[in-house]
């Protein structure tokens, strides 16, 4: 059955900036039919289109009503004035500004809604975005099954996410959507968030890493359930939908108290969400995670030349003003500008005073009258520049080496700001400089990374190793980084490295999966090469990380042991 103009205008008014494939799935219509109708509206100037891509989604053409289209929709949908129309739909200037600011998250919600919908026989789904409150959006399928979406972007602190989850736990279950879908930026956050939801008994909650596979794949088990009687198993999108019970809509329509007539074309032209390409957004994400990153480290991390970095920075710095350069020629660094802080804040639905207190390079005066940076991560960098550079050097070198080796993959890594881990009900904690997961020669190597410049003598070395000794003797690491994590200490000289090896040999409980290396050795032999000395065997020669396949973790005795020949990895 062909789609009428009224149906198309109604759908585009409810889902601004949707692409044709997503719209077809949400409407339950063939893609060819939807695409043909969009082409006709595009030719008449009623609809416009704009290219958009995110770091986790490819670029696509997204459709929106033009200024002419707003007038046409007002008449076709039976409203007296455009003001009445934009008050009834999320098409006002205020709503479009909100959606444009959150465009990367909006794209994820549309893609998720299309994947969850049947996409046949005109069985339509509904998507509603929320200006404020616990949820970012709500998806309601044709049969009344409803799902609330909660997204954690890089600018949203873990504490803020947990505050929203606590509010969901306290919310009347009969009033909220049937299931809660949480999108997080990394597997590390997925595990911690799942554990938090388990502890708070949040019913029907599913957590997944925001990725193309999680948003599009209907059969891959990528969504971790937090309210299942046997642990926290993974479900596919089909499984998530099938476990939900149709209950009808439990949410109210978005508030539209302010409803100004929009100018869509003008608003799109000045929006970084559309003007910045996916590669530049990935670069912006790295700069967000690692403020004041040197240009050479950024180029190594991305696998491009420094000239290509300069080319991307012409867009991010000179055109859009999202990034600012620091330093002189030969020591150029990049960090978020004031506009960049505002952009990531709006994109991730965070609080602007909080994000300014993290990344701002503005100078202020503390209580003692000393000048300091307003952003605490920038101030930390200024006080520990060598330490911060060592972290980005290691991670960028690891990324470059894994990219060059077809048998190795850096699956993910998490920066210092989100790598801390409290355990034993918060009584103990570790705070590594980074957390990640490496696959080399078929061996999975989850790791914690410590770039240590201060502990140079036995007493200091013991103090640095004690938290990890306590952590490995607890049961927490089994769930945090299964099957077991390896801790990588990097020091600045071979003499300090020898101090670590000698000191660990004197400790009775230090038969733990901890390796140490130094910058001179890593610079020549590489992170993946024979650069690492195991602290559980002081006389052992240097190992490559793939050499860990010869060892196994004995959880009963809390020590590393040689695997039997032919043993399983």
Structural write-up:
The chain is an alpha+beta fold. The protein contains 24 helices and 25 strands. It has a 7-stranded mixed β-sheet, sandwiched between helices. Helix 4 (67-76) packs across helix 5. The protein is globular, with a radius of gyration of 26 Å. The model has no long low-confidence stretch (mean pLDDT 92).
Q: Quick check: average pLDDT? A: 92
Largest sheet: 7 strands, mixed
Rg to the nearest angstrom? 26 Å
- Helix content percent band: 40-55%
Class by SSE composition: alpha+beta
Q: How many helix segments? A: 24
Gross morphology: globular
Indicate the low-confidence ranges by residue numbers: none
Descriptive keywords:
569 residues, alpha+beta, seven-stranded mixed β-sheet, six-stranded mixed β-sheet
């Amino acid at each position: 059955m062909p789609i009428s103009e009224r149906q198309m205008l109604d759908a585009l008014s409810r889902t601004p900036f949707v692409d044709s494939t997503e719209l077809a799935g949400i409407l339950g219509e063939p893609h060819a039919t939807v695409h043909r109708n969009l082409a006709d509206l595009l030719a008449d100037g009623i609809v416009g289109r704009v290219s958009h891509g995110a770091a986790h989604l490819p670029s696509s053409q997204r459709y929106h009503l033009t200024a002419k289209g707003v007038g046409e929709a007002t008449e076709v949908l039976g409203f007296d004035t455009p003001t009445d129309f934009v008050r009834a739909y999320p098409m006002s200037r205020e709503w479009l500004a909100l959606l444009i600011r959150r465009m990367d998250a909006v794209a994820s919600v549309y893609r998720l809604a299309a994947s969850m919908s049947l996409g046949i026989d005109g069985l339509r789904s509904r998507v509603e975005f929320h200006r404020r409150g616990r949820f970012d959006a709500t998806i309601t399928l044709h049969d009344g099954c409803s799902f609330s979406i909660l997204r954690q972007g890089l600018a949203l602190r873990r504490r803020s996410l947990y505050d929203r989850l606590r509010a969901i736990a306290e919310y009347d279950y009969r009033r909220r959507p049937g299931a809660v879908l949480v999108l997080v930026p990394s597997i590390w956050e997925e595990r911690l968030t799942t554990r938090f939801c388990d502890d708070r008994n949040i019913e029907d909650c599913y957590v997944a890493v925001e990725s193309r596979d999680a948003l599009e794949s209907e059969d891959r088990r990528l969504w971790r359930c937090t309210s299942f009687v046997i642990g926290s198993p993974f479900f596919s999108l089909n499984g998530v939908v099938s476990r939900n019970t149709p209950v009808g809509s439990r949410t109210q329509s978005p508030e539209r108290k302010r409803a100004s007539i929009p100018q869509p074309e003008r608003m799109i032209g000045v929006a970084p969400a559309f003007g910045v390409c996916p590669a530049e957004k990935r670069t912006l994400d790295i700069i967000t995670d690692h403020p004041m990153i040197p240009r050479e480290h950024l180029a190594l991390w991305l696998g491009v030349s420094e000239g290509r970095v300069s080319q991307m920075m012409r867009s991010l710095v000179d055109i859009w003003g999202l990034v600012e350069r620091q330093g002189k020629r030969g020591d150029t660094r990049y960090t978020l500008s004031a506009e960049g802080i505002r952009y990531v804040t709006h994109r991730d639905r965070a609080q602007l005073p909080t994000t300014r207190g993290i990344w701002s390079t503005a100078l202020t005066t503390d209580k003692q009258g000393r000048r300091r940076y307003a952003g605490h991560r920038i101030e930390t960098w200024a006080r520990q520049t060598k330490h911060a550079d060592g972290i980005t050097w290691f991670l960028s070198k690891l990324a470059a080496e894994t990219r060059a080796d077809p048998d190795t993959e850096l699956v993910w890594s998490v920066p210092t700001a989100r790598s801390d881990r409290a355990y034993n009900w918060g009584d103990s904690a570790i705070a590594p400089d980074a957390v990640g997961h490496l696959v080399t020669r078929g061996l999975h190597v989850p790791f914690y990374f410590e770039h240590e410049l201060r502990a140079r003598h036995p007493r200091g070395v013991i103090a640095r190793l004690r938290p990890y000794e306590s952590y490995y003797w607890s049961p927490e690491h089994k769930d945090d980084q299964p099957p077991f994590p390896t801790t990588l200490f990097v020091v600045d000289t071979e003499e300090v490295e020898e101090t670590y090896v000698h000191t660990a040999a004197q400790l009775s409980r230090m038969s733990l999966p901890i390796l140490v290396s130094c910058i001179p050795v890593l610079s020549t032999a590489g992170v993946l090469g024979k650069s690492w000395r195991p602290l559980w065997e002081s006389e052992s020669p240097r190992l490559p990380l793939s050499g860990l396949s010869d060892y196994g973790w004995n959880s009963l005795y809390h020590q590393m042991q040689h695997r039997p020949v032919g043993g399983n990895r």
